[in-house]
Design brief:
The protein has 16 helices and 19 strands. The protein is of the alpha/beta class. Strands 5-4-13-14-15-12-17-16 form an eight-stranded mixed β-sheet. Strands 7-2-1-11-19-18 form a six-stranded mixed β-sheet, with helices on both faces. Strand 9 and strand 10 (about 155-160) form a beta hairpin. The relative contact order is 0.16. GO terms for molecular function: FAD binding; oxidoreductase activity.
Length: about 450
């Protein structure tokens, strides 16, 4: 008898969020993680309103747990997402001039440690469903299911496969083909330097009020971001700059403080002060890669890919995790319907493909547009700092900055789920279940 399991490839934030959503909906699954345990690299992640809408749709209890874990700006600025300042003096404005404070009610800028969030998600799934040291190297589809092949020589069976395995996704490559122009993530012509400061130290560098507020400093060819993490005991700092090329085979190039100081040499005193306190041994340059070419479809047969595997994007709008969570919500909604129809057994391929098409109809246009605007956002943050900046220019930038995030943050995730299910049912032509689906939880 064919396996009924959904094979989730990748145990990062997207994969575990999908696993939780499936478990809550009583859909059988396994998570295959290439490493020996669930773990994330990186210091902090900032979560906006739509991320929390998605978490709530996945599991209301999870939403509450993450809210309790997250760090926010101090009162009365809890609903502020970012305070925008000029990162250098211009002809008409001083260094650090306050441009605006972007409001993102009700969450503001809520931050959590990446690995801390991942461990919370991992604690919400059945550990018996996790498989470690399983790097996918091949998959073979049949009319009944999918055979998975792993680097360690083992195989497993599944009803369908969802790739949640990041920007350099094995599933994406296996579905599209190695030579497909959309397979590989490409250098985004930008890179970032990162640091974490203890809060008491950061207060001495930028002042207490600035240290406890999430900030974006806009300057020539880039921006600097910092926000409180770990319950306000530390600050995560990122300095993003345009780069024409990436010549390393690695994502991270170590010991780059001298290059950082050169890259930001024309910035103002406040950013110079931040950089002066960064340690040479821990100042590394992180390349950014995204999927610049979009495939026609994000699935083939019984295999699909979502999250960063589908749409890795630059971090300049804080939407990478958000779009992965939205993907997990909508994918769980369509899979719930086909598993309900199959009464827990392996769904037929026609229904799996209809579920994937329903998902894609709703999600494709949104995540592709979020990716496009995230690439553009580096120029948006950087270009405001030109020397001849006027008061009228600042007012225009403030208006555009506030408008830029409205459609990102205020998306109706339950509406996405319902539309995807309706599209799936339309494709299947099953009039008898439409009324039931419209009234069912997703």
């Amino acid at each position: 008898m064919p396996s009924p399991d959904v094979a989730i490839i990748g145990g990062g934030l997207c994969g575990l969020a999908l696993a939780i959503a499936l478990e809550k909906r009583q859909i059988p699954y396994k998570v295959y993680e290439a490493r020996s345990s669930f773990r994330e690299i990186g210091s902090g992640i900032n979560l906006g309103p739509n991320t929390f809408h998605a978490f709530n749709a996945i599991d209301a209890g999870l939403y509450k747990d993450i809210s309790a874990l997250a760090t926010r700006n101090e009162p009365p600025n809890e609903e502020t997402w970012m305070t925008l300042r000029l990162g250098r003096p211009t002809d008409n404005f001083e260094d650090g001039h306050l441009v605006t404070a972007l409001q993102a009610p009700p969450t503001g800028n809520m931050t959590v440690g990446r690995n801390e969030l991942l461990q919370m998600l991992a604690g919400s799934i059945d550990p018996a469903r996790a498989r470690f040291n399983k790097k996918l190297v091949g998959l073979t589809q049949s009319t009944d299911g999918v055979t998975l092949r792993f680097e360690d020589g083992t195989e497993d069976e599944a009803a369908l496969v969802i790739g949640c395995d990041g920007a350099h996704s094995s599933v994406r490559g296996l579905v599209l083909g190695k030579e497909h122009p959309a397979t590989r993530a490409q250098f985004s012509r930008m890179a970032g330097y990162r640091a974490v400061f203890p809060m008491d130290f950061h207060e001495q560098v930028v002042g207490r009020d600035n240290a406890h507020m999430s900030h974006v400093w806009c300057g020539p060819d880039g921006y600097v971001i910092h926000y409180p993490i770990n319950g306000g005991t530390a600050v995560n700092i990122g300095l993003w700059i345009k780069k024409e090329s990436w010549n390393s085979e690695r994502w991270v190039v170590e010991h780059q403080k001298e290059q950082m100081l050169h890259d930001f040499r024309s910035w103002g005193p406040q950013v110079q002060r931040i950089m002066s306190h960064m340690e040479p041994d821990t100042t590394h340059l992180w390349g950014n890669f995204h999927h610049a070419v979009n495939p026609e479809h994000y699935f083939q047969g019984r295999a699909a890919f979502i999250g960063d595997a589908a749409h890795s994007m630059p971090p300049h709008q804080g939407q990478g995790a958000a779009q992965s969570m939205e993907d997990a919500c909508v994918m769980a909604a369509v899979l719930r319907q086909i598993y309900s129809r199959s009464k827990g057994s392996s769904p037929p391929q026609q229904e799996i493909e209809a579920a994937f098409r329903g998902f894609e109809t709703v999600r494709k246009a949104r995540f592709e547009e979020v990716t496009r605007t995230s690439v553009e956002a580096l120029d948006f943050w950087a270009d405001v700092s030109r020397p001849d900046l006027t008061e009228a220019d600042v007012n225009t930038f403030e208006r555009d900055a506030n408008q830029r995030f409205v459609w990102l943050w205020n998306e109706d995730i339950e509406g996405q789920q319902a539309k995807a299910v309706a599209e799936m049912e339309k494709l299947l032509g099953d009039e008898t279940t439409k009324a039931r689906v419209n009234g069912a939880a997703v």
